[in-house]
Amino acid sequence: MHPREVLLGAQAATAVLPVCDHYSGVEARMRKSLQLQAEMIEEFGACVFDVTLDCEDGAPVGGEAEHAAMVVALATLASNQARVAVRVHAVDHPAFDSDVAVIAGSLARTLSHIMVPKVESIDDVNRAVQALHAASADQLPLHVLIESPLAVHNAFQIAAHPRVQSLSFGLMDFVSAHGGAIPADGMSSRGQFTHPLVLRAKLEIASACHAYGKVPSHCVVTEFSDTAAMKAAAGKAARELGYTRMWSIHPHQIRPILEAFAPTEGDIADATKIIAAAARENWAPISFQGKLHDRASYRYFWQVLERAHQTGRTLPAEAQIYFQAQPA
Asked: Is the whole model's pTM more than 0.85, yes or no?
């Protein structure tokens, strides 16, 4: 049996997503993003980041119908290996229904997911599900943006919805929703990890996701030219706050995110040895370097290997065999 079946059980149905979600909302940047994705698929032999084509805040205001049609045309050009998503308008926006009808209706079998911004409650999720149903896109996963104090309060209920695959934190909208009570520094690469209200929101979202087997996606770093700040933020998100995915808003942010979320070579080597030894023993307990391991710890080490694969790391042959043909 495949390690995912043995070790994760019911959790094996939980989505395994690329660790980076890259956003672009202007046609020229969308085209560049899709081209870069194709180049990195060739480089790594796997799709190591999603491209999300933006119809909301990252897109120009006005001409929403034309923009949605252009997004459909661009997404259609992507290869079968590509992972392309679209962020539509919020459910209370006049363009929401037409966005979903045009985009999901045309690309239900092409897109990896639909991102819905400014979700406040389970009612908003149900509204999005109804729109997808009307567009004959019932199997398309939903990713939602948590961007207000009320949304954070409802994060566990939202994460529990079976159509929701991932929750993302909307940093700038969250800070703005506090009427000046959080200073502008709360949106910076430093302040977003130190202000108590922002930090609390991040932890609440990550906890809600892990409670229901969903993917927590960390917010943006707006200082896109500051590589050191990007690496530091991605490292904290991955190692301290429980996030397994992060947004990129500039091509230069993609590789630092991949590096921050990737296991070390030593972690990969140990995980490979432990999983290989466990498989030889039919997943009974083993001793490794003087420590006892059983299926409780095997789960962790298998997820290390999955993360390595997601981030394009080179896997030893004993681990690579598990990723040549994933179970259905």
From this structure: yes
